[in-house]
User: What shape does this take?
Amino acid sequence: MIAITSIGQVAEHYDIAVVGAGPAGLAAAARAAELGLSVLLADENPAPGGQIYRAVTTTPVTPRAVLGEDYWKGGALVDRLRATTTAYAPGCTIWSVAPDEAGGFELGLSLGGQARLIAAGQVILATGAQERPFPIPGWTLPGVMTAGAAQIALKASGLVPSGRTVIAGCGPLLYLLAGQLAAAGATIVAVLDTTPRRNWLAAIAAFPDFLRSPYLAKGLKLMATARGKLPFKTGVTALAAEGSGKLTGVMVTRGGAAETIPCDALLLHQGVIPGINLANAAGCAQHFDTVQHCWTPTVDGWFASSIPGIAIAGDGAGIGGAESAALRGEVAALDAAR
Assistant: This one.
């Protein structure tokens, strides 16, 4: 069975070290362990789940409808991992990955306030995604934060912003978070969609394929639910947080006209991009993705990077969502085991 590992219990060598306990890391570690390999799963968070399934085993938000059924799917991944002999190290930071003399890798880790080096034959980086920076005038005012940070507070601690809350940006998380916060009791006074109209036109070419996607019904339901219950404003072309010493409102420009919406909290979100810091530091090749407008690790069909022995699975290798991430973790583990 999976064991919580302290710094003194971390072995000198593992067949596979998996970095990150989101859906890709959970699936990769479980598959590798099921194949009989010794596995270390290291994650900087105190509990498994990554961002999408954050605190799925510990969240105080017990009504399932608040976070949605998709969130609770993470429990099955954790249960699968628990049935293995994986060494699980929560609260662990991997700060270096470098080749060693034996043909594998030397990993530097910090755990419980102590640091040490361990060896691994193969490495799977499952570092997930991070929010795209979204600077606007006044974004350093107290009361302004990212939507992802608000979601962390909700999942991990059951907290919602107090007072009048505005959510601004684009992408599916905008709709998801607005619905989650409203269901948890937050006062949402406006949801501001900054998606340029030209993006909708550019997406028309992909519409026939999207009609066959399992995400179609889910996406339409998510949008309809949020738009039916919350005040949405589309066509937003500029934002500015206002206030002296703290946030008091947000100036919104739509159609050439500006208005100020009084608020106590402003949550910003402009999509997510792969978390490439560790892959980049390890020397894995990157390329610029002109569709997602971000740097992305270069991987093959098995999610192996340019460095033999290092695989990159899940959203850390390109944004695909939780279900895709878990499948990519499986594939990366199979190739590493081979």
